[in-house]
Amino acid sequence: MIVWGYHMRVSYLLSITLFLSLVSGAYADHKVAYTGLAPVENQEFEDQVDEAIIKDKLKIIKLEEKIADTTKKVPPSLKLELMKAKVNLEMKSKLVKNYVRTTIIQNVKVRRELLRLLNKQSINIEDLIALQKLVNEEKDHQRAIQ
Questions:
Q1: Which residues of 117-139 are buried (b: 16+ CB within 10 A; e: fewer)?
Q2: Domain-by-domain residue ranges, the chain?
Q3: Could you tell me the pTM of the whole model?
Q4: 30-48: per-residue pLDDT in tens?
């Protein structure tokens, strides 16, 4: 009797595990069908985005260390460079927040453009306009499909 009860519990747990694995697999397939990208590709893209942001953060840290090591008056050019780096990082962080974290970017061209911007030393307004134009084209394309 004890063995039978144990056997039933194990089979019940196995059936729940099988059901959950099927559901999660179906969800992953749905996600691939919906976005056109496998979860691994999304993760690689997010890793590349994070890497670009980390590079800028490291640049700021190095500049701050340079300023801290300076015993005499800090040159204005170094202060200006630090300020530019901070503004650039803030812009890139906002780009990430607006385009990567809130929506799944489906278009490969948009992804490439975003990564190109994140890897640039400084971002100008023309770059932002071009990126927004690509995003708007992709949104219009998605609406047309639906």
A1: bbeeeebeeebeeebeebbeebe
A2: 1-35, 42-145
A3: 0.55
A4: 444 444 445 556 677 778 8
